[in-house]
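YM 10:42: SMUG1 glycosylase sequence, as discussed on the call
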Amino acid sequence: EPVLVAEEEEEEEDDGDGDDLARRFLRLEREQSALLQALPPFGEPVSHVYHPLDYAWKPHCDFVRRYCRTPKRVLFLGMNPGPFGMAQTGVPFGEAWHVREWLQVVGAVKKPPSEHPKRPVLGLNCRRAERSEPAPHRAAPRPTRPVDGAL
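YM 10:58: structure's back
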């Protein structure tokens, strides 16, 4: 049965700053997430399925509201939603350090209903990194946020 973000939580996250694009994007993500969760469960050998848009909704919303405020021409290459990336933070990049320190995303991450013992969700405190990510000391400069929040 799908676990949806509570309506109260959406209202709490809606700061009413006129950010229509981000609001529409988040609404579409919730709808798509509900459709995915309504699919029949996987069978063996899959033992755990994580839904970061449920348990990491707050940092995900912070990311969207910060960086998805205006239309952009963007091409994402090599997205890695692995166990030490989006599964930890709700942000579609491969390392919690970049999300926390570089993008300065904030928000509490809850525990998923079922965690694999070798892949616990530590949220923005996760110290592990996806193997494809560069070390933090080789990271690009911190993004600047113009007044309208666009990169």
